[in-house]
Amino acid sequence: MTNSRKYNVGLVQMRMGAEPEANFSSAVGHIREAARLGANIVCLPELFRTQYFCQREDLRLFDLAEPIPGPSTARLADVARELRVAIIASLFERRAPGLYHNTAVTLNADGVIAGVYRKMHIPDDPLYHEKYYFAPGDLGFQAVDTAFGRVGSLVCWDQWYPEAARLTALQGAEVLFYPTAIGWHPAEKAEFGAAQYDAWQTIQRAHAIANGVYVAAVNRVGLEYGDVEGNRVEGKGIEFWGGSFLADPFGRVIAKASHDSEEILIGVIDPGLIEETRRNWPFLRDRRIDAYAPIANRFTDPVNAWTADGDQI
User: Fold this and answer.
1) Threshold 0.85, pTM exceeds
2) pLDDT-based confidence at 300, cuts 50/70/90?
3) Is residue 1 pLDDT above 90, yes or no?
4) Which residues of 111-135 are buried (b: 16+ CB within 10 A; e: fewer)?
5) Residue 274 to residue 242: CA distance in whole angstroms
6) Would you list the DSSP string of 152-176?
7) Handedness of CA 118, 225, 242, 196 (dihedral sign)
8) 53 vs 47: CA distance, rounded Å
9) What is the pLDDT of residue 2?
10) What is the pLDDT at residue 309?
11) Exposure string (b/e) for 182-217, b if CB count within 10 Å is 16 or more?
């Protein structure tokens, strides 16, 4: 007999302005609306308190960071208790002087912190200078229990790594949440925009299929210049492409947001469908765990060397 337990998730796709307090208030409003629509677990986008400040390297921006537990988790805990919802929130964590992380916190419906995940994969690309601000996570991949179901949180750049999805799913996560801040460089959008979004959605749908879990990608939306309290980046900025979505264990997109508007997606999580899908596609059963040791290598060099003429040495 398959599991008949079900619950709803709410994915908040939102815009961010220059004032952190206004962004926080907006996020709380979206959480309230998601709860009104029936969400049991609500996920916010990556670093929702500000515009995406990593577009530049600026020592002053470290002042945006806060401890965990701290002011934001305390305020969100009050909202979680009031609405009886679990909340996944991405925060700029100040762990110690000079040590910072990009961190996703899961608050249970009673306001208690159920899990803290520090982003493991840190990018360094044009306008995505995250290595300047964040140390790589050191808490590992994890799934945590909420009042409604067992979930895992990963963050943005983590979404390109099948190892991260697998290790989180192997701990029993029914949903992989990806708070995200990803978008187009305006000059590249016409040529590469559609392919970039398609690749982003495809890799995450593949995580859903390969692991037999739900995947929730929660992006921000809008053109941003990293504007924080009037201090912005020169240039054309980043057009965050929205497109948040929820995929089921078969990889089907069951809810999807637009590329240019704030939206709240509500989707049903059915653990029974996870069971059914894994019975028909038993990928976890057929894994050759005895043969995967080389996955821990950075790269596996060829066993044999060859000359330029194609002769084996």
Assistant:
1) yes
2) confident
3) no
4) bebbbbbbbbbbbeeebbbbeebbb
5) 27
6) EE--GGGGG-HHHHHHHHTTT-SEE
7) negative
8) 9
9) 57
10) 59
11) bbbbeeeeeeebeebbeebbebbbebbbbbbbbbbb
Distance CA 275, CA 231 (A): 50
Contact 31, 84 (CB under 8 A): no
Residues in the chain: 313
Residues with catalytic function? 46, 119, 156
Question: Which amino acid belongs to residue 249?
Answer: P
Under a CB-based contact definition with an 8 Å cutoff, are residues 17 and 240 in contact? no
In the chain, the domains with their CATH numbers are 7-296 (3.60.110.10)
What tens digit of pLDDT does each residue of 231-271 get? 888 889 999 999 999 999 999 999 999 999 999 999 999 99
Tokens encoding 280: 């028909």
Burial degree of 60 (CB within 10 A; 0-12, 13-18, 19+): exposed
* The amino acid at 2: T
